[in-house]
Amino acid sequence: MRRTATPLVLSTLLAGLALAAGPAAAQNGRPTAFPVNEAHKIPALEETIEAVLQAVDDRDTEALLEYVLPELQFSFGVENGAEAWAEILNAPADSDTSDWREEIWFALGDTMRLGGAFNERMEYCVPYFNCSFDSEDAGPEADAFTTIFVIRHDAAIRAQPRADAQVIGRSAYEVWTGVEFTDPPPDGDWRDTWARVVLPTGTPGYIWREDFRQWVGYRGYFVETPEGWRLQVFIAGD
Fold first, then answer.
1. Residue 39 and which of 49, 84, 112, 121 are 20 to 30 A apart at CA?
2. Cα separations (Å) of 163 from 28, 90, 117, 137, 214?
3. How far apart are CA 14 and CA 12, in angstroms?
4. How many CB atoms lie within 10 A of CB 150?
């Protein structure tokens, strides 16, 4: 069952929500999604975010679960819930789920630090673009799996998918659609991927994974409960 904000909370958020849901500014013919962080509007929510981040930094599953709903959704499969999630977060290094464990711990801290926004149900969403960006602005042919959001004001676009390749352009908070992704190098970091984009000139270029996030990447939703703000969903994919 979804929990919604109280009338008092609702009234304090309407202005911010209207701003966040506004049309995206175009840049080079592409929409943009500038970062926002609306947690500061509600001190209790801001405290929850800080506590969750501390638990992530400490790798403290027990402390983290204090801010997670028992019915947490973290998978599109049959297995969900805070207890099942905790088993993954505490998985031994030699277990089959150790890679998933590392992915979740990293993604949780990463998405929270990018900032968040409120949706029409007054859920707090991280990262921000999952609620602040209007999907219609991406265009009718946009696909969630091949759409990325640049999260920096000066992300380099390189001629080749290498850190030492020539910079042929810059991207500032742009939303790119129809991108292709390179595979991580063998035995390399799973985060070491590049997005292939096409410049207005038709020239292909590459943006490093640290400078963008996928639309279907990890995202979380916090809801207000009688006990405070709690994480209800933390999931990737579609």
1. 84
2. 24, 34, 32, 31, 20
3. 6
4. 25
pLDDT, tens only, 99-148: 999 999 999 999 999 999 999 999 999 999 999 999 889 888 889 999 99
Rounded Cα distance between 109 and 103, Å, is 10
Strands (DSSP E) contained in the chain are: 26-27, 30-31, 68-73, 117-118, 124-126, 148-150, 155-158, 167-171, 175-176, 180-181, 194-198, 204-208, 212-214, 219-225, 228-235
**In this structure, which amino acid lies at residue 166?**
Q
Separation of alpha carbons 225 and 3, rounded Å: 7
What are the residues whose beta carbons fall under 8 Å from the beta carbon of 203, sequence distance 6 or more? Answer: 168
Strands 212-214 and 117-118, bridge-based pairing: unpaired
- Assign residue 43 a region (left: φ > 0; alpha: ψ between -120 and 50; beta: otherwise): alpha
Q: Quick one: pLDDT band at residue 40, thresholds 50, 70, 90?
A: very high
**56, 64 Cβ separation under 8 angstroms:** yes
The number of residues making up the chain comes to 238
41-84 pLDDT, tens per residue? Answer: 999 999 999 999 999 999 999 999 999 999 999 999 878 999 99
pLDDT value of residue 126: 98
CA end-to-end distance (rounded Å), the chain: 20
Question: Do 177 and 138 contact (CB within 8 A), yes or no?
Answer: yes
Q: What tens digit of pLDDT does each residue of 88-106 get?
A: 999 999 999 999 999 999 9
pTM of the model: 0.84
The amino acid at 173: Y
